[in-house]
Amino acid sequence: MVLTHEAPARAAADRPAPRRRSRLRGPERTAGWLFVSPVVVLLFVFLLVPILMGLWVSFTSWNGQGSPFQPGVPVAGASNYTKLFTVDGLARQDLMTSLRNNIYYVAIVVPLQTVLALFLALVVNQRILRAKSFFRTGFYFPSITSSVAVSMIVLFLFTNGGAINAILGYFGIDGPNWFADSRGVLHLILNAIGVADINNPPPALLDHQLLGLSWWEWFAGPSVGLCAIIGLVIWTTSGTFMLMFLAALQGIPVQLEEASLLDGANRWQHLRRVTLPLLKPTMFLVVTLGLIGTWQVFDQVYVITKGGPSKTTVTPAYLSYRTAFLDFNYGPGAAISFILFAIIIVMMLFQRWVMRDRDRTGPGWLRRTWSRSLGRAGGS
Amino acid sequence: MVVSIDNTQAQAMAAAAMADAPAPLRVRPRRLTGRQRVIRVLSYAVLVFFTLLFLYPFVIQLSNSFKTETDAENNPLRLIPDPISTDSFVRIFDGTQFPIWLVNSALVTVLATLGRVFLDSLAGYALARLQFGGRRFIFGAILAVMSVPGVVLLIPKFLVLNQLGIYDSYAALIIPLLADAAGVFIMKQFFESIPSSLEEAARMDGAGPFRTYWSVILPLAKPALITLTILSFQGTWNEFPHTLVAVQSPDLYTLPRGLAQLVSGSLGAGTQYPLKLGAALLTLIPVTVIFIIFQRRFVRGATEGAVKE
Asked: Which residues of B touch A325 (CB under 8 A)?
């Protein structure tokens, strides 16, 4: 993949070079450096340097007074990190709670937003429909809005006695007090089917723990409050992913559909045997972008719940912010950021691995059809 | 590196989506079979349902921002406010610091957008067209930087602003937003797609690299520049976490920061939902207007936003 998009660039850059070399090399080199220097300096000062500074602070016990780089700052070594995993205490418990919350969040948001986006794209893409661009625009609109502003809307919709509960009331459902309800959904389900009593959890789960959190806590599922945030996020992201699917769908030649229909395939068979396999690359893209994005949820938590109720919406991103800026424990806060960084890097490597695997072993004709159709649609 | 590949791919796909393929539309059979008619009705039903689901919250927001507080609390779903009240908007301007947030947001957005468009296109041009040592390395570094997740940078950014002595100032709000790697990437891709013959003509006439960039290349790059302007505008207008670690004085709050402050309270008695919804509504207006005007460009650049968030 890297090669395919680098190659034309290299060719274009190299071609005129021999003619120019003699006269223009000197000024061109200076100009090149001058042109990129503002961006390079800005990215260096506000991205690379901060990361190095943060890394240093994550090994200290700096409390926010003065500069973390002066001599007197106490060095904590690796203890900011090790405490989070090995020492039984509030810090470890909070990190594990945040990881648990985020794992459930990822496990629900990624599949739902992917399926919803794909479904909407398939429906919008049908040739027999009109006003497609209206629907496309409508679905995409929530994605471009301010996360803080839509969080305020959601806060209003989910208030006790608010719009959502009023709608649930029409169906005879007594809606929960969403952002004050810390009960885990999995607990509620287990309770409802009679497997476990939510007020009197099974001692086998309650008394044994993993990394400072009891098994009962690990298996809580997302809290009712977190579910409302999950709904909000799916609402504001599926539009973007729908566009990606739509783009891929429009790259599939119409002839393919005609051919398979002529061969006697019905719509469902066509979808399963032809369309979905062709959408595989986009599917990987959407899933991995989702995996990377969902580990970064912050704005909604900050605005709506501030981590509550009972820490059930705390995510690693929010925990690191809170530890540093509200508790003034910059060292541990920075350490949590870098743990989160490591998680996201693992997600990216996973994406790379999946993509490379596909490039090497994937059926060749699929890929060729894909790139040909993409080129066709892009060029028309 | 990884994300950049997504970008190219996604951009290509988004561009394809916008091509809208008129040809297949024309081959649509004149008369639909009964089955097709059923499918069409069902599809429209599905689309209308989801459009309502996606857009109705904004309708609720609009109508409730014109309600009185008790009306909003008792009848959140009622479409027409009774009585229609503009009270919340009067109080937004009189009773909160909304005007200051608005001015700050406008200032930050305009300056950051100008900076991004100019600096990103300048760097993109150099990386696409000029020969200089280290070019490949710099491009690789920019790609690597692009994939650093924003939330991881919260504490680090605070540290550097603090160390530079600009924490809690306009400089801290604006300068870190002046350049973004994704923009450089978009511009580089674009410059590589336009033919180099015009530039060479300009060079023959003795124009230097900056002159060539400014008066030959930039006019050609209008479509890409507009896309970049729109993306930057939307990105900086909505930017929230950066303001959290860059400033603390209420006088330096931008709209998203101010809105977040409204939620935390400090408004006095009651829930004040009409006021909050109204303030959020006003915040949404600029991006919405631009979205409606430039829909297609938004869609084309859609995926950069997705990658950055």
From this structure: 158, 244-245
Cα torsion A234, A238, A241, A242 to 10°: value is 160
The pLDDT assigned to B17 comes to: 46
A67 touches chain B (CB under 8 A): yes
pTM of the model: 0.85
Question: Does the structure show a pLDDT above 90 at B13?
Answer: no
Give chain B's length. Answer: 309
Nearest partner of A50 among B143, B122, B246, B139, judged by Cα: B246
CA A163 – CA B92 distance, rounded (Å): 23
β-partners of residue A213 are A210
Q: Tell me which of A161 and B139 has the higher pLDDT.
A: B139
pLDDT in tens, A54-75: 999 999 999 888 888 888 888 8
**Partner residue opposite B51 with nearest CB, options A16, A135, A144:** A135
Note whether B155 and A54 are within 8 A (CB).
Answer: yes
Spatial separation of the C-alpha atoms in residues B117 and B53, rounded to whole Å: 35
Nearest CA in chain B to A352: B2
Of the candidates A38, A248, A288, the beta carbon closest to that of B119 is on A38
Assign B28 to helix, strand or coil: coil
pLDDT tens sequence across A5-47: 434 444 444 444 444 444 456 777 888 899 999 999 999 999 9
Would you say residue B24 has pLDDT above 50?
Answer: no
Q: What is the ipTM of this complex?
A: 0.85
Task: Kindly report the nearest CA distance between residue A184 and chain B, in angstroms.
Answer: 25
In the DSSP assignment, the letter for residue B21 is: -
Give me chain A's average pLDDT, please.
Answer: 84
Q: What's the sign of the alpha-carbon dihedral A76, A79, A83, A89?
A: negative
Residues 6+ apart with CB under 8 A from A282: A244, A245, A247, A248, B13
Please state, as a whole number, how many other Cβ atoms lie within 10 Å of the Cβ of residue A130. Answer: 11
With tokens 């972008």, the residue in question is: A289
Residues contacting residue A37 through CB under 8 Å, at least 6 positions apart: none
Interface of A with B in 228-247 (CB under 8 A): 235, 237, 239-241, 243-244, 246-247
Residue B171, classed as helix, strand or coil, is: helix
Closest CA to B124 of B265, B221, B34: B221
